[in-house]
From TrEMBL:
GO biological process terms held by the UniProt record: gamma-aminobutyric acid metabolic process
Cofactor(s) recorded in Swiss-Prot or TrEMBL: pyridoxal 5'-phosphate
Entry's family note: Belongs to the class-III pyridoxal-phosphate-dependent aminotransferase family.
Originating organism: Trinickia violacea
Lineage: Bacteria, Pseudomonadati, Pseudomonadota, Betaproteobacteria, Burkholderiales
Entry protein name: 4-aminobutyrate--2-oxoglutarate transaminase
Signal peptide location: none
Alphabetized GO MF terms: 4-aminobutyrate:2-oxoglutarate transaminase activity; identical protein binding; pyridoxal phosphate binding
């Protein structure tokens, strides 16, 4: 039998270090919220493939939908020979994305590709080049994705120059001293200091910053962005790649706001583990790109589209939005109850199940990166897979499948409590 350490040595020899890998064990199989490595060790998966399997690993309905598609055809290239399932999925997304206006959807493969295409569409629709994004934001690893991303290490290191006409303003973050008013004022300052608003095509933001630290965008901020956009003819793009598909307790996080974006990017949990992304938006804006300007060989692959149809059904049938809120509330209550024993817990936040805990050095405003690493490492030793995020690497984000069984969820909360207590030297 091949061991984890043998594979680790082969991996180091065969693949570049730039593809950073968090775990030193190798997946053998996975089921709902559990994962087993090649040596038979079990893990509870609170990473969900970075927010991709909100519907769990290998959901039987999703597997069945893919099997059914596998027996018919796996690829024709939608732009060459189209298929009905792509059109039906677009109709479903159009009907369910925020706003009553006519909408259209185009499918792609990755989140970064969705972002690239949202930018292309916004530029084609407005005839303007400029883009405004936010510090701490993450929009992918392509050149434009990196340009828009507001986190230097590790994403931008050594990869410039980036596309021009991209400007950043600070994202609201009260814990670190940035108010909503500060952020909105900073956007207005860009118009005085850096770019004529008439040259700005779009403002792109995440309704809850993902990679940047799970900071939810305050309602006033989102309203403020909409107002700025309306005043200057700028398009508002909500990047819902990480927030979408029931994670926040709604199908899309923008449904928590009384603001409608012009364009929205979707990916990750859209297709339950298959690579599929999309841009959905106002029909007339979506039609701005000339025929042939959008697409890609694999864009809207039929296997991934089949999975996405099943994902939407599972979200409805298993009421995963409600379940996200229920499980998220339970997790937040557990973390809050531990604040007394674990003084590093400075903030517990997030809508629905898009929950995070931020650690600061006890009694200070200083990020506690070391403590966060310790918690993550100890959790992993005990079989609980946790992800870290935040510009300072001091936030643990929780991304468990929303289909997780109650018993497995409770087991994970028990492990989390033990790990947090151990990390401050309290015997659990
Ligand atoms: C908000 C957001 N946008 C874009 C991306 C990029 O998606 P992908 O990694 O599929 O290219 C991510 C990935 O984490 C994301 O969280």
């Amino acid at each position: 039998m091949t061991t984890n350490s043998e594979l680790q040595a082969r991996k180091d020899a065969a693949t570049p270090r730039g593809v950073g890998v968090m775990c030193n064990f190798y997946a053998a199989r996975a089921e709902n919220a559990e994962l087993w490595d090649i040596e038979g060790r079990r893990f509870i998966d609170f990473a969900a493939g970075i927010a991709v399997v909100n519907t769990g690993h290998r959901h039987p309905k999703i597997v069945a939908a893919m099997r059914e598609q596998l027996d018919r055809f796996t690829h024709t290239a939608y732009q060459i020979v189209p298929y009905e399932s792509y059109v039906t999925l677009a109709e479903k997304i159009n009907a369910r994305a925020p706003g009553d206006h006519p909408k259209k959807t185009a499918f792609f493969t990755t989140g970064a590709e969705a972002v690239e295409n949202a930018v292309k569409i916004a530029r084609a629709a407005t005839g303007r080049p400029g883009l405004i994004a936010f510090s701490g934001g993450f929009h992918g690893r392509t050149l434009m994705g990196m340009a828009l991303t507001g986190k230097v290490a590790p994403y931008k290191l050594g990869f410039g120059p980036f596309p021009s006409d991209v400007f950043h303003a600070p994202f609201p973050n009260p814990l670190h001293g940035v108010s909503t008013a500060d952020s909105l004022r900073a956007v207005e300052t860009l118009f005085k200091a850096d770019v004529d608003p008439k040259r700005v095509a779009a403002i792109i933001f995440e309704p809850v910053q993902g990679e940047g630290g799970f900071y939810p965008a305050p309602a006033e901020f989102v309203r403020g962005l909409r107002k700025i956009c309306d005043e200057h003819g700028i398009l508002l793009i909500a990047d819902e790649v990480q927030t979408g598909f029931a994670r926040t307790g709604k199908l899309f996080a923008m449904q928590h706001y009384d603001v409608t974006p012009d364009l929205m990017t979707i990916a990750k949990s859209l297709a339950g583990g298959m690579p599929l992304s999309g841009v959905v938006g106002r029909a007339e804006i979506m039609d701005a790109a000339a025929p042939g300007g959008l697409g890609g060989t694999y864009a809207g692959n039929p296997m991934a589209v089949a999975a996405a149809h099943a994902v939407l059904d599972v979200i409805d049938e298993e009421q995963l939005c409600e379940r996200a809120t229920k499980l998220g509330d339970k997790l937040k209550a557990k973390l809050t109850s531990l604040q007394h024993d674990v003084p590093q817990i400075a903030d517990v936040r997030g809508p629905g199940a898009m929950v995070a805990v931020e650690f600061l050095k006890a009694g200070t405003r200083e990020p506690d990166t070391e403590f966060t690493k310790k918690v993550q490492a100890r959790a992993l030793e005990r079989g609980l897979l946790l992800l870290v995020c935040g510009v300072y690497g001091n936030v643990v984000r929780f991304l468990f499948p929303l289909t997780i069984q109650d018993a497995v969820f409770d087991e994970a909360l028990g492990l989390l409590e033990e790990v947090l207590k151990e990390s401050v030297g309290i015997a659990a």
